[in-house]
Fold these 2 entries.
Entry 1:
Amino acid sequence: MSTTAAPLAPQLDPYALAAELSGKHLIGGRLVASASGKTFDVVNPAKGEVMGRAGYGEAADVDAAVAAAVEAGVTWKALPARERGRLVAECGRLLTAHTEELARLVALETGKALRTESRVEAGVLADAFTFFGGLGGELKGETVPFNPKMLTLTVREPLGVVGAIIPWNVPMMLMALKIAPALVAGNTVVVKSAEEAPFAVLRACQIMAQVLPAGVLNILSGFGPECGAPLVAHPRVAKVTFTGSVETGRIVSRTAADKLIPVTLELGGKSPMIVMGDADLAAAVAGAVTGMRFTRQGQSCTAASRIFVHDSLHDAFVTALKAKVDAMVMGDPLDERTDIGTIVSPQQFDRVQGYIAEGKRTPGAAAHECSALPTDAALAKGLYVRPVIFTGMTNDSRLAREEIFGPVTCVIRFTEYEDVIAQANDSDFGLAATIWTRDLKTALDATQRLQAGLVQVNQNLVVQPNLSYGGVKSSGLGKEATLEAMLEHFTHKKTIMLNMA
Ligand code: ADP
């Protein structure tokens, strides 16, 4: 068990927590500094001030974390599967008790509003551990009717040390969907957090280290090339699960290919939302607000960033969508009144502004800027971007082809069903898609033909444990969040044959 003596008490002051966690990784059940002693600044994007310093993980720290994971793996994989599940479910219970502090900490480091986003994410974090914790008994094998004189069976075995590399947009949830199934399946884990959001995930792991044996779960903070790359390349890392950009996904995949180890990649999207002429307009508009994740400043892989609206509804849809987004409040992420917080970092801010400027220069396109920047002087340096709805943009424009990861969507007019299906599929990505219609035949046809890992009709729900998540085309490789994903991506099937002749 972990070395933590007294149970951790929830700490609702995120500044105090960031200070407590500053400069630290979690290796072998203990909070430790980087081997080099180096740290890097973590900035609160709503105020532009340093909120803490994270441990600057490098190859030496990766070595230490992987060594701890290798050592812990011996006894962890020997535990009965349901006992591992029980401990993982216990993590879910502990995380539930810490939901509010984790929500506040992630809001401070990412700029995501507490009420609309961060609290929801903290809830899913706990839920993922509860869900996967119940699945230990499902790590079943099979018997194979190969030969009556040969008892042939399969067993599921863990892969070993899993390297989990996560992004900053929903860091706790995406971490949970990777590590909960990996742990239940009997693997041990080294997480590499995103440089923009290292604290909430570290805190979550510290909380879990109270029940997990030391070394079963380790987490490092650091930058991609210095910390992520050596983790992927480490000879004792047997599997990498990654969520991030297509570009980095390719780098990770190349290294994994050299080592001949499996990878799971979740790489983003440019998700189409199709609003047919017979759709319920009010429901579709509400669905666009949720789907575009305006409350997360559009920083979502599944953001409905291409909204195809039938000519007959187009103008009414744009007016209603703008009115709804106008009514959303931009402000301090920690303020309960805030709907929309900030972009995560200055680099992302500049990128998003670049796309908006390009959109405004595009001939025939119009930018409808929504809501209003906060007026509070304390937020003057905050990375706030007003949501923008572009109209008159075509599906072949850069804004409709590239993942912006900001509060920017394109509403594209269409008239013919066949044409809109073709346009929706004319994308490098294939993560999620929705269709809004009252016609059952159209709905069913679209669900068959839209090229995406998740297709929804008349709704735009977010990812949840037990819903298979992952894309086709450049959106990634492999699925997450389900029992099948746990079996397929975190175990291998061993065949055992007993000669009875
Ligand atoms: P984004 O640009 O959206 O932040 P990235 O793909 O750069 O997406 O980052 C996702 C995660 O991948 C982060 O944790 C980041 O540090 C990590 N990362 C970046 N470069 C590499 C790399 N070369 N090898 C491994 N991990 C990396």
Note: The domain at 14-267+475-496 is CATH 3.40.605.10 (Aldehyde Dehydrogenase; Chain A, domain 1).
Entry 2:
Amino acid sequence: MPLLTAVELYRFYHRGDDETAALRGISLQMRAGEFVALLGPSGSGKSTLLACLAGLDEPDGGYVEVMGRRMSRRPEAVRAALRARHLGVLMQSANLFEHLTVEGNVRLQMSLAGQVDRRGIELLLEGMGLTDRRLARPSQLSGGEAARAGLAVALAANPQVLLADEPTAEVDSATEARILRHLADHCHAGRAILVATHSQALASHADRLLVIRDGRLIDA
Ligand code: ADP
Ligand code: MG
């Protein structure tokens, strides 16, 4: 069974009489152990796709299944429960609670999943190169640090599927390499990762590339 399945996803945005077809019939599957990179120019639909896969947005057509269970067009509580149990999500912003430190954010996510583990928090922050910033608040972080902190939160509950939107957009290449090692370990443990990225380094480590253009997947 695939960990995550999307069937014929459509998403339209309307502003006045203007219609943007952000997703135009996207189908995909994520299997255990896969590291998949989602590539495409700005505005091609990457963030919309990840939000629909995460159940944070609802597709206008098609559906998403997580671990064989339908997520789309289910009540918010059902979507949230599926997300909490199986998915780790990093969006492009708003991933952190402002009143908590970096470590506090990671700890909260672990406790929501019922598995607080001090050593696990240390390893995660180390893997993201954030040990020195663990007591910082989100407003004190650079863009790259905030993305890495969001990634630590997304990974905190050891999710079956990680969905990450441009996690390394603002980090140096040494830090990116460190994050890549951490993500590779996550996949080797039988988890799956889908990362939207512009990074060649990240894409070159992927098992599979998905290329999106104008809301459609095209051949890589
Ligand atoms: P990417 O992440 O690849 O840059 P997005 O998924 O953010 O692309 O956007 C895909 C298309 O949908 C773009 O044309 C964008 O302008 C449009 N779009 C995204 N979000 C909204 C929104 N909330 N309202 C209207 N249009 C949107
Ligand atoms: Mg985007």
Note: Residues 46-47, 92, 165 surround magnesium ion (ligand 2) (CB under 6 Å).
